[in-house]
Design goal:
The chain is an alpha/beta fold. Helix content is 45%, strand content 19%.
């Protein structure tokens, strides 16, 4: 079976085509299209028509590419930049009508569950009780679990791009006072979630997302060309050093640092502050940088549970029952999806 996933993020549209070999998604082709929605859409704003046109074009190209590689219609989802837009349903209907791809949005908690599944399978059972951190453009997902799916998940409005817009766009480089204000907000929003993670006492912690990968590279982790099986780790002192390197630099100079791409240079500082604060509050001294995340989690669910579960996710979103997350969502995922 050959399956494909399309991930519409704040900066890019990413396609992964994979073979389901012995229950494991083995990638055969990946591709991405620059979208940069976050540069055109402030958090919570309407997505303008010009951006919708580019989104339609990217999803259409991804669908054609998946078909060329022998995969069926992609499982397509959009993250917080679309999920939180007031015209979300109009955007999704337009994409579905013009591309034939049922693009949907996922609640932040479901994103956390699927990302946890991907990380759990990559890390293996030897990881024991596992904590997960995932920093996106619009939200931070946190999860903890002892089994296949998490026992606890939370999605918080602490994405790197969102916080950059809120705190770090007035001056370049930013005023240290604004960085302190950003950190205070992260601490306040994370307080209850962090207490729960400390109480659970995870044995291992995994971090996913491009934000963590680029921070890892900045702090000396092996580059991506060395392959996914190289051990990559981030520590609290690493992240403190990253903040000290990034904060005095204008955006153009951050983009010259190892691992910091030009499209993500502006949000790299906010990402480092969120990562450092989250690890410090949760009591995590280090995290393993995990190459599997939400896309692999979706493919694993498709392989293990069949197509019905994704059809139900898409149906709920089409009916408008998937609401944007509340300001500080927090819940225990006792039975989030069928096992």
């Amino acid at each position: 079976m050959r399956i494909s996933v399309v991930d519409v993020g704040s900066n890019t549209v990413r396609l992964v085509v994979a073979d389901a070999q012995d229950g494991v998604p083995l990638p055969v082709h990946t591709e991405k299209w620059r979208l940069r929605l976050s540069e055109q859409v402030k958090p919570g704003d309407h997505i303008p028509g010009e951006a919708v046109e580019r989104l339609v074009g990217a999803v259409c190209a991804a669908s054609r590419t998946a078909a060329r590689w022998g995969a069926s219609t992609p499982l397509a989802f959009a993250t917080a930049v679309v999920r939180n837009a007031p015209n979300r349903h109009e955007v999704l209907r337009t994409v579905r009508a013009r591309t034939g791809v049922s693009l949907c949005t996922l609640p932040g908690e479901l994103e956390a569950e699927l990302t946890f599944l991907g990380a759990r399978r990559w890390m293996g059972w030897r990881a024991g009780p596992l904590a997960l951190l995932d920093i996106g453009g619009g939200s931070l997902e946190v999860a903890f679990g002892r089994g296949r799916l998490p026992d606890f998940v939370a999605s918080l409005p602490l994405g790197a791009q969102k916080l950059t817009h809120e705190f770090l766009t007035d001056e370049d480089p930013p005023d240290p006072r604004r960085i302190r204000e950003l950190r205070r907000k992260v601490r306040h929003q994370l307080r209850d979630v962090a207490a729960r993670i400390r109480w659970e006492g995870p044995r291992t912690a995994a971090a996913t997302s491009r934000t963590f990968q680029q921070l890892g590279r900045l702090c000396g982790a092996a580059p991506g060309r060395h392959g996914p099986f190289v051990e990559r780790e981030l520590t609290l002192p690493d992240l403190r050093g990253a903040i000290e390197r990034l904060s005095p630099l204008p955006v153009a100079e951050r983009a010259l640092l190892p691992g910091i791409s030009a499209p993500r240079a502006a949000q790299s500082l906010a990402g480092a502050v969120v990562a450092h604060t989250a690890m410090k509050l949760t009591g995590l001294r280090s995290v393993t940088l995990c190459p599997w995340a939400i896309r692999e989690g979706i493919m694993l669910r498709q392989i293990e549970d069949g197509a019905a579960w994704w059809a139900e996710v898409s149906r709920l979103d089409e009916e408008g029952t998937t609401a944007p997350e509340p300001p500080v969502p927090l819940r225990i995922a006792s039975a989030p999806l069928s096992n």
